[in-house]
Design brief:
By secondary structure, the chain is mainly α. It has one domain. It contains 14 helices and two strands, in the order H-H-H-H-H-E-E-H-H-H-H-H-H-H-H-H. The longest helix has 29 residues. The model has no long low-confidence stretch (mean pLDDT 91).
Length: 374
């Protein structure tokens, strides 16, 4: 909205200063600040509303006993995050950009799936919330739409995308692309579903998921900007994807929203994000990597989310294997996801979160280094 309004006034009246709205870096900064302000303004209002409606977190049996004190803390705080992302995106991005429209679709759809899950759990008091297979259906649908448009209608996004429609770049290796061929759409579905669920699994300690998302989104802001910059992409020998610079504005909004929500979600948390926020944010990260052809960078970029997910997979597989072989299930970790394992080792919750942040920052540096070390 701001983009159209001020560029129009600049074109008609040549008002000094309005030309700044043509620059992605300026609008990215504006989106980040706007998201932060919205989160600070909206946060207390939504938290108060959730408390009045008694929409609080139920005690989790799969968490350490220390988490019993968290029962009753307002949840569905993902509404704060989503509002703080979507509103700045509508204000600061060029809404004619198909990349932005696809990411908005991912955000709103997965946010709706997560909201329905939280609503059924905390309002309708259904312990399992939305049945797992229905949640997967929503994630698969999002992946199908994103993958299908890129594969069958790449000209809707960028006429030059046709050559790369089913390909991706390979980290650390210069001028090498991997073509998924007919498996491209299933790959997109897997990436979006996996990252959506991975962020959801990570959302188990105060500030852990949202802080890590903020670090990852800041990294993606840099990557999307250079991917959509003709000179920088040529210098780094990565595919130039016209229009992806607008995604940097979206990523900046996520970073601002993450900082704003972290103010209320840091230990001890005043509100939890719930599936409303975690499913949407995870899906956004996966979709971003798909759109900028960096799917193979995702294990490095989202290494914290990968670590959490793998710990759950290992725990469940080993438990089933040992139960079948010995008649008694055994565990690799004291509890999964792995952040609960460290809790049971006696690590204070803030220390675990801080150390995971450090890991995420190191992975951010490594991810950015892949563009130069090629």
């Amino acid at each position: 909205m701001f983009y159209f309004l001020f560029t129009y006034f600049d074109h008609i009246y040549h008002v000094p200063g309005l030309g700044l709205f043509r620059y992605i870096t300026f609008r990215a900064g504006g989106a980040a600040v706007t998201a932060l302000i919205i989160a600070f303004w909206l946060g207390p209002k939504i938290i108060r509303l959730l408390r009045e409606k008694q929409i609080g977190e139920a005690a989790k049996v799969e968490a350490p006993k220390t988490h019993l004190s968290k029962a009753g803390t307002p949840t569905m705080g993902g509404l704060i995050v989503l509002a703080s992302v979507v509103i700045p995106a509508l204000l600061w991005t060029d809404l004619r950009n198909t990349y932005v429209l696809l990411i908005l679709f991912v955000t709103i759809t997965l946010g709706a799936v997560g909201f329905l899950d939280d609503y059924l759990k905390v309002v309708r008091k259904k312990p399992k919330g939305l049945i797992g297979r229905y949640k997967i259906v929503g994630q698969v649908l999002v992946g199908l739409v994103v993958g299908g448009i890129i594969y069958f209608y790449p000209q809707w996004i960028d006429p030059e995308l046709w050559r790369l429609k089913s390909s991706t770049t390979v980290p650390f290796i210069k001028n090498l692309e991997f073509d998924f061929g007919i498996l491209y759409i299933p790959m997109v579905i897997f990436v979006i579903t996996a990252t959506s669920n991975a962020v959801n699994l990570t959302d188990g300690l105060d500030g852990l998921a949202i802080g890590t998302v903020g670090i990852v989104s800041l990294t993606l802001a840099v990557i999307t900007y250079v991917s959509g910059h003709a000179i920088w992409s040529q210098y780094l020998t990565i595919p130039y994807l016209r229009g992806t610079g607008e995604l940097a504005i979206y990523c900046a909004a996520i970073t601002g929203a993450a900082l704003g929500f972290l103010w209320f979600n840091s230990y001890p948390a005043q509100v939890f994000m719930g599936d409303t926020g975690s499913l949407a944010l995870g899906g956004i990260i996966g979709a971003m990597c798909v759109l900028i052809k960096k799917e193979l960078l995702l294990p490095t970029l989202g290494g914290v989310f990968l670590m959490e997910t793998v710990s759950v997979i290992i725990q469940r597989m080993y438990f089933k294997y040992t139960k079948r072989k010995y008649g008694e299930g055994r565990r690799v970790f004291r509890m999964a996801p792995v952040h609960h394992h460290f809790e049971l080792l006696g690590w204070p919750e803030p220390k675990i979160v801080t150390r995971f942040y450090i890991i995420a920052i190191l992975l951010m540096i490594l991810s950015l280094a892949t563009f130069k070390v090629r």
